[in-house]
Amino acid sequence: MSEQSTAPAAPISPLEPWPDTVQWQPVSRDLVWVELIRLAIGMSFLLIGLGAGWAITGFWFVGVGFAAAVLLTVLRVVATVRAVYAWGYAERDDDLLVRHGLLVRRLSIVPYARMQFVDVSAGPLERAFDLATVQLHTAAAASDARVPGLRPAEASRLRDRLTALGEVRAEGL
Asked: Are 52 and 66 spatial neighbours (Cβ–Cβ below 8 Å)?
């Protein structure tokens, strides 16, 4: 007679921040372009300065600094693309989950009853790509979460839904 092992299912690790039981919504991939343009604007000043300094002085260490800045820019481009793909959000019955991060993965769980207000914003670059950011504000400043890279219609829908759910949940407090 053979004994069958009925091993319990492996417990979910508390260090695993992405629950598989929810339907994750990705942010728009156009956010990649917004972030890359921001990176290009910032790095162009550094690269132009180092390139001009190298051309004027001819010092080898300025050239090494220029090469290092180019290498770091390329690495940052790869990290930016992967970071945008890591963003996601999920709406549950009682809370909103927001995930992001590559090296340090972060999961924010914002209960609807704790939300004080929901803000939708779009800077010039975001507007150029038809994107918006939803910012959730709670009583604890450290727990504020944001969802970037949403289309304006989705950002408005999410804002209205979160506001309505926040009002309903807050009535019981």
From this structure: no
